[in-house]
Design goal:
Elements (H helix, E strand, L loop, with lengths): L14 E9 L5 E10 L2 E6 L6 H8 L7 E6 L2 E2 L4 H7 E4 L11 H11 L5 H14 L15 H13 L5 E5 L7 H14 L4 E6 L9 E8 L2 E6 L1 H7 L4 E6 L1 H10 L1 E8 L2 E7 L10 E2 L5 H23 L13 H9 L1
Parallel strand pairs: 3-8, 3-9, 6-7, 7-8
Antiparallel strand pairs: 1-2, 1-4, 4-5, 9-10, 11-13, 11-14, 12-13
Helix pairs in contact: 3-4, 4-5, 7-9
Length: about 325
């Protein structure tokens, strides 16, 4: 069996996560019952900073062990079959560095050798192929420290691909990149995703692009949505508004609503905002086709309202509860009981 074959059959999910929970020694629970399935193509893992995305990535890549649950890559268990999983995987972490004094082609040649590609002719051909794929052929002899930030990220993709993995895991890939490099990176991910599974985690909605086949939203260590982009877009229908108004009124609206974008023209301010509140000015019009970013914000805003309402309900005093002068120890004992 080669490193590019899935265990058991081609119907085996590329990535399968069941009941995953991870608690750090500090007591912080980063993941709390995560279930996830990824097939071939670009799969977006979206969520705010601190949602647990990097922890999930590191568990999938066998860098840390889960506290509970099961994770399989290509049918192989990340805890019991690490070597097989690592053969299947290519990983681009948030920070790809440590090679600053080496030439680009040297980095890839060394990593190809470490992956078991010992035949020199084959290895050189593979390095040249990957450099062409990520658009770095012209800088193959350049030292890493001379590369732009975008080039370093593309070199990171190249090192993740050099051993021809079936699954590519990419963690927050566009942080710090300029708009042109962002676009180039999205196109690269779309091209690579035609042949293999890419799990791309980000808090930047625009990173996912039109090529994303499915999206999962991770918040507070839990998957709160999973489905194709059109499903998420549909959830925002009738909840995104465009308002053109004065600067003063715009400031008031921004204090009450989730504003997605703001532009100024001819002394007027145009806002696009997410709102369930019908107390909007008469000039407000419903956006017929919300963007993915607007849909994400609408979903998370609704989730925030639901969570807040539930917490309020949980904190309502019940029979036997003390409203003033609560004894914490007594309350803890009552909960334990």
């Amino acid at each position: 069996m080669t490193s590019t074959q899935l265990h058991n059959s081609t119907s085996t999910p590329a990535i399968e996560v069941k009941g995953l929970r991870h608690t750090y020694p500090s007591g912080h629970t980063a993941l709390d019952g995560v279930n996830l399935t990824c097939g071939v193509g670009l799969f977006g893992l979206l969520g705010p900073n601190g949602a647990g995305k990097s922890t999930l990535m590191r568990i999938i890549c066998t860098l840390i062990e889960p506290s509970e649950g099961q994770v399989r890559v290509g049918g192989y268990d990340v805890t019991r079959e690490r070597r097989r999983v690592r053969e299947m995987l290519g990983y681009l972490p948030q920070d790809f560095g440590g090679w600053r004094l080496h030439r680009v082609e040297e980095v890839l040649d060394t990593l190809a050798q470490l992956s078991g590609m010992l035949e020199k002719k084959k290895r050189r051909a593979r390095v040249a192929e990957v450099l062409h794929q990520v658009g770095l052929s012209d800088v193959a002899h350049r030292k890493v420290k001379k590369l732009s930030g975008g080039m370093v990220r593309r070199l990171g993709v190249a090192q993740a691909l050099v051993h021809e993995p079936k699954v590519l895991v990419v963690d927050e890939p566009t942080v710090g990149l300029d708009p042109e490099e962002r676009i180039r990176f999205r196109k690269l991910m779309a091209d690579i995703g035609r042949e293999r599974t890419i799990l791309l985690s980000t808090h930047i909605v625009a990173d996912l692009g039109a090529a994303c086949k499915e999206i999962a939203l991770l918040d507070g260590g839990q998957i709160v949505f999973q489905g194709p982009p059109p499903e998420l877009l549909a959830l925002a229908k009738g909840r995104v508004f465009e308002i053109t108004t004065s600067s003063a009124e715009a400031e008031a609206l921004e204090s009450r609503h989730e504003v997605v974008s703001r532009s100024i023209a001819n002394g007027k301010v145009t806002l696009r905002c997410v709102s369930e509140d019908r107390e909007l000015p008469p000039s407000a019009t419903v956006v017929e086709e919300p963007t993915l970013e607007e849909s994400y914000m609408a979903f998370m805003a609704e989730r925030g309202r639901t969570t807040a309402a539930r917490q309020d309900d949980e904190h309502l005093p019940g029979d036997g509860d003390q409203v003033e002068g609560v004894d914490p120890a007594a309350a803890e004992n009552r909960q334990a009981g």
